[in-house]
Amino acid sequence: MRDPLLSTAARLGALALAGGLLAACNTADRLAQVGQEPPQSAVGSPERLAGERPVVMPMPKPQVQEPNRQANSLWTPGTRAFFKDQRASEIGDILTVRIEIDDSANLSNETSRTRSANESAGLPAFLGYEQSLGSVLPEAVSPESLVEAQSGSGHTGVGTVDRSEEINLRIASLITQVLPNGNLVIAGRQEVRVNYENRILQVAGVIRPEDIDSDNSVSYEDIAEARIAYGGEGQLSDVQQPRYGQQVYDILFPF
């Protein structure tokens, strides 16, 4: 019969070994890139940025729309150009996303918690049997004071957040899906490598065709379910991250 303790230890050992091998592969890749520029990903469809599966959202009932044409007029109401609307509208069309974030936050929280409890129980009289407790319990036990428990806990926490962000970027995105109500799923990725540092910008979300401006651009504030990521890969980004051992220690250390 297998010892449960040994089985658990074997599982933990296998998990640690798998984690070590994974870290070793990542470390080997990073060691292979020493002295070289960080590689950029191959140009491909940004469809995966919007998710592995097609986006499904609540939709109104489909309605058949009649062409909005004016008699004796070549102009179609709602269009931005005389001959054809040049704004992106179909899968594969490209539009520009304007990201202009000027955000700042200053938060300060302080919590203090204390709790105490006191429980006691006694049995001074119970049909005269209370005097027999000494035969089954230690002699020092008094029927008037059988149980007495006390507990107390305290916690004090202080947190402060002071941040300021200003981002002004433009990124070309691709329409990857047209939803049944006409809304457009967009996704885009941009990589710029400067001095061994890869700056990566990603954006994905859902927009309304009406929010696309006449210059074929849309503001990030008009993107529903927006997913915007701006980061980097390279030597500077590595220095800004804590060591793997420190990250593992911070996750596992319970106190």
UniProtKB/TrEMBL annotation:
Location of the protein in the cell: Cell outer membrane; Bacterial flagellum basal body
Annotated membrane topology: Lipid-anchor
UniProt-listed GO biological process terms: bacterial-type flagellum-dependent cell motility
Record GO cellular component, one term: bacterial-type flagellum basal body, distal rod, L ring
Protein role: Assembles around the rod to form the L-ring and probably protects the motor/basal body from shearing forces during rotation.
A Pfam family the protein falls into: FlgH
First and last residue of the signal peptide: 1-23
Protein name: Flagellar L-ring protein
